[in-house]
Structure formats: structure tokens, C-alpha cells
Amino acid sequence: MESKALRILQNYWGHERFRPLQYPTIASILSGRDTLALLPTGGGKSVCFQLPALMRAGSCLIISPLVSLMKDQQAQLRAKGIKSLYLHGNCSAAELHRLFDNLKYGGYKFLYMTPERLGNRAVITRLKNLRLRFVAVDEAHCISQWGHDFRPAYQKIKNFRAAFSHIPFLALTATATPRVVADIERGLALQAPVVFRRSFQRENLSFRVVHTSVKEGVIAAILQRRKGAAIVYTRSRKAAEQLSKYLNNRGVHSTFYHAGLTAAARDSRQEAWMAGRVQTLVATTAFGMGIDKPDVRCVIHRDLPESIEALYQEAGRAGRDGKPACSWLLKNASDRGVMKSRLAHRSLSMAHILDIYVKLNNHFQVRFGERNERVHPIDLSAFSEKHGLDPRLVHRVLKVLERYEVIRFFEWSNPRSSIRIQVNPAQLQALYKRGPLTERTVETLVRLYGGIFSEASYIDEARIADRSRLDLPTVKRVLHNLHAHAVVGYTPKAVQRIQFLVPREDARTLKAFEKGFLEVQQWRASRMQAVLHYAFQRELCRNRVILDYFGEKTTADCGKCDICLSRVGKWSDEWYGR
């Protein structure tokens, strides 16, 4: 079996040999065992589920947190001549069935989807009719509230697992503390899993911290003296743009990347950097997931990262080819205060949560003791303005309420509005008694979109307004009113949605999760302290600090971080470019 796996690796990936723990992971999942693989960034996790799927008839389901990550992996597979599909969030019922038919009869090996899609009964039904060999859960640390990228939907995988107990599950992650590993095993209901844990040690990667009051100048000096591809991470979009301009003026060819750019602009800049036409990409943390560029020589953090996990994951994008590479973290005297202010700004009190929870229920006219399960569109900006709230605060509260399953928060935007009539034609006729505005809107709606009695259809409110000779705000107001009375299911474009999951009991509702919430608040403070300790301590080898954080004990210093070099007189903050 190993010789066959090696031939596939050579034919499709062009590698002469497996990286450490890749083949044992592949052999374990092919033997039918639940498997957990902890491989560092750059350790080749995707091969661990892609290659074994090619060795067996049938398909593999990959649960992944980001659409961009799924698209990247799908493009890489397509380039190898391997057929795959991904299930996006705006897929209609007809598109869903067509996708699964293609998967079943078209020779497709992989289906990518986000965990949110596992709550769709139609998806589960179609998955049961496929010849699934195994399920891979990528970025498995997202299942743990103690992980650095917690996604509540990942906790639903355990229920999904119950319907597929006959096939093995493979969980993969690059960054997990012992506490998170235990959560992964429990949260995915892994049965006596085989666990492969590669050391977090990166022999070719040097971790260095520079104290400076002129960060931009230091970054330019590092990049001028160290040739090769580089990534510079910043905290804000504005900082990314300004730093890229500064570097270009200093002779360092760079471009910037952040979520505020159009998808086409992001793709273009990423492609230019991947192809080597641009040396340096200055980016927010929106960049990097799923990127596999082997010759990155340098990753620089202009600002203190959110956590040691984030630092390690982002730094690990350097030196994937095994050649020497370096991770730089820049700090100054004000960074302690900035970090603590950031934590204070993001911290929430139970009073904040209760206030916004009550306002949400009142906004949607949910009575005390009532459980209203309809999905409500919500414009966070308009809601916040109406109640005199900071939209960022409202967003954080919604994420907390979602984490503790008080609400479901559909955060992604809809590129197009959709609607489905939820009453029969006879009941619809009775609506005309409500007045001419409702009558004209509904008649035009039915005339333009005949299929909306059977399934949700995309609509254009401006077109409805034009045909019914009404203004656009009136049409939208009528549709919102019909949705509020459960006559139609209306989802406007470019708005978010919420669904209440438990009866409204205000303070009592929140009391159920208060203890867990306060524990998470304390944990976030401890993560901040871990980053500050890493950045500002001057005694311990940087590499040892990182390994200790992940529960890996060692007495050996790395010999190449700034601390180790300073002990032998080969380092000072003024020598940063050497």
C-alpha cells in the first residue's frame, strides 16, 4: 500500500517522499480508524486526506471553515486533473440536487462544504446516498472554544457524526494546545482515535523580536537585506495600504491585501505574489489560510498578534521548502497598552449582552416566554443606529449569543434577495383586502416569479417596483411586512439574519451560560498575557516559549533566535537586518 501511495504522491504532487507523519496518517484512515493529526503549518495536511481518497473508490467529504480555503484547494486539485466540488451557502434546492448528481455519477472525488451546511436535511439525505469513504475535518481546532478560531457550527459535527458512524473521521489541525486536543476528540465523538502529533519545532525557522520606535524603517531594512518572498502582517487595512506605499518608495516591491478589496483585486494581488512578480505582500490576517508558497523567506508582524497560535500559524508560512527562513515580531513601548486596550475594547459584560438581547427581542416583537423560530433579516447598521449602539458591540454580542446557542446568526451577506410564498393561492387572495399596495406588489411578484410557491427564488425588488409602478422603499416595506406575518419567507440582499433558538426569558436565558462566558473572558486575558510574555521577556529562548505554550517541553535552546544570539554577542536590536 505504501508503494502505491508513494506513486500517487509522485504523480500528482511531484514529491519524492512523504513529509513526517503524512503516510502513517494516510494508512490509519485507510484502515478505517478515526484519526487525529496535529501537523505544523507547512506539514502537508491536505495531502493526508486528498491522497487516500484517490486510493479508494468513492468520495471524500471535507468540512472546512472558509469558502476561500475551499476554492484554493479546489483550484489546486483541478490543476492536477482531479475533480472536486464545493457546496456554497447560496445554493438553491435545484442547484443542490444537480451538484449531488454530479458528485455521484460524474467521477468527482471530493466535496467541500462549511459546517453550517450540515444542518440542512436535504444535504444529509443526499450524503447518505453517496459512497463516502471517510470525512475529513480541516482546521479541527475550530470546534473548541479554547481554540484561536472558534466556530460554533463545528460543534454540530458531532450530531452529523451520529448519522455516519460507519465511516472513519480524520481531524486535522496545525495549532492545538492539550486542552484543545481533548475538545477535538470529544467534540467530534472520535472513537479510540489514532493520534499523530508532530513536534511544533521548526528547525529551519528562526523566531526574532525587535524593539524599535520606527517599525516601518526596520521592516524596510529587513526586506532590503533579505531577498526573497515575504509577508508583512498588520492590524488594520489602512496600515497595510500605508506600509505598502512606504516600502515601494524605499525600493521594496510590494502590494497590499485585505478584505476591503474586491474579490478580483484580492485574487490578482495574490496571484502576482505567488508567481514572484511582487516580492512582498503587506496584509491583514485576511490573507494566508490555505496558501502554500514554499519559498517564503520572511514573515514580519508589524503589530502584536492576537495569540501565540496566530503568531505560530502565520510565521509557519515561511520556509516551507525546508530552507532557512525567519519570523520577525516588532514591538515598542506602547504595545503593552495597545494590547490591553484592545482586550478591554473587545471585552463584554453580562449587562451589555442582556441589554442588546432584550432590544433584539423587542425589535422583532418576541414576547416573554415565546420561542419565535422564524429567520429574521437584520440590518446591523440600522438596528444599531436606532438604539444608539456601536455596531461592533452589537456584532460581538450576536457572536456570543450564537456561541451559547441562544440564537443562530447567519453572518454572510446575500448577493441577491430571495423569497418564497408560504401560503396557498387561496390564502394569498385574501391579502388583497389589506390594500392596493399589497395587492399590486403580490400580483407583480407572482407574475414575475411563478415558481415561488414551491421553492425560494431570487428576486429583484427594483424590477418589482418598476412593474407595479410603486417606489422601491414601498415594495421593500410591503415585503418585510409580509415576512413579519409569515406570509412569505423574504431574505433581502446584503443583510444578515438571526433566528431565536430558545424561549425568551431575558436574564434567566443568559444565566444559563454566564459561568462559561466568564471563563472564556479570563482565557482571552491569559492569551494576551502569553503574547506579551513572548514579546517582552528577555531571558528564555523564543522557540522554547512557543513549544512550552503548546505543551511540548524541551531543555534545548534553538541557538538562532534573538535571545540565543544575544548570549553569544551576535545580536542586538540595532543588528536586526543581519
Could you state the CATH homologous superfamily of the largest domain? P-loop containing nucleotide triphosphate hydrolases
Number of domains: 4
**CATH fold descriptor of the largest domain:** Rossmann fold
| The CATH C-level class name of the largest domain | Alpha Beta
- What is the spatial order of strands in the main beta sheet? 3-4-2-5-6-1-7
Helix content: 40-55%
CATH architecture of the largest domain: 3-Layer(aba) Sandwich
Task: Describe the protein's topology.
Blueprint: H1 2-13, H2 22-30, E1 35-38, H3 45-54, E2 59-63, H4 67-79, E3 84-87, H5 93-105, E4 110-113, H6 121-128, E5 132-137, H7 157-162, E6 169-173, H8 178-187, E7 194-197, E8 205-211, H9 215-225, E9 229-233, H10 237-249, E10 254-257, H11 263-274, E11 280-283, E12 296-301, H12 308-315, E13 325-331, H13 335-346, H14 350-363, E14 375-378, H15 380-387, H16 391-403, E15 407-410, E16 417-421, H17 425-430, H18 436-448, E17 457-459, H19 461-468, H20 472-484, E18 488-491, E19 496-500, H21 507-511, H22 514-536, H23 542-549, H24 562-567
Parallel strand pairs: 1-6, 1-7, 2-4, 2-5, 3-4, 5-6, 8-13, 9-11, 9-12, 10-11, 12-13
Antiparallel strand pairs: 14-19, 15-19, 16-17, 16-18
Helix pairs in contact: 2-3, 5-6, 13-22, 14-16, 18-19, 19-20
